[in-house]
Each structure stands twice: as C-alpha cells, then as structure tokens.
UniProtKB/TrEMBL annotation:
Name of the protein described by the UniProt record: AtpZ/AtpI family protein
Species, as recorded: Flavihumibacter petaseus NBRC 106054
Listed Pfam families: ATPase_gene1
UniProt cross-references to InterPro entries, sorted A to Z: ATPase_put
Transmembrane portions of the chain: 20-40, 46-68
Keywords for this protein: Membrane, Transmembrane, Transmembrane helix
Amino acid sequence: MISKKTPRQPEDSNSWTRWLGLGARFVAVITLSLLAGSWLDKRLGTGMPLLIWILPLCLIAVTLYQLVKETARRNNGNKDSGA
C-alpha cells in the first residue's frame, strides 16, 4: 500500500494563528469569568465583590497551566522530529 504524505507547512506560517487563538482564549476566559463572577456575587448576595476577583484569577491560572503544558509538548515534538 502506498501512503501519500502531505507536505508539512513551515512552523512560522501558522505561528500567528496560534498566537491569535491564544489571545482569543484569554479574552474569552476573562470576559466569561468576570460575567459569571458578577452574576454569582449578585445571586449569593456577597457584601463585597469576592467572586468577581477569585473566579477570573483561578481560570487564568488554569489557562496558563494548559498553555505551558501544550507549549512544552509541542517543543518536545519539534526537537524529536528535527534530529
């Protein structure tokens, strides 16, 4: 059986889309967590805006962890295929 390999695009051609996706992810996480925190603060009747601070900070930390994990995996894959 003959396998056809598609030509691989250079890494630089997709780098801007990766960064654009990262920026969109951060904007979405921050916006949705602020809205959810505000809604929860009103719903629970907290005296101060506690959840509007805690929820975005926690979700940003999770998003950064996922980013570092994904970047490390991609970098390890690039080193293995280049050698």
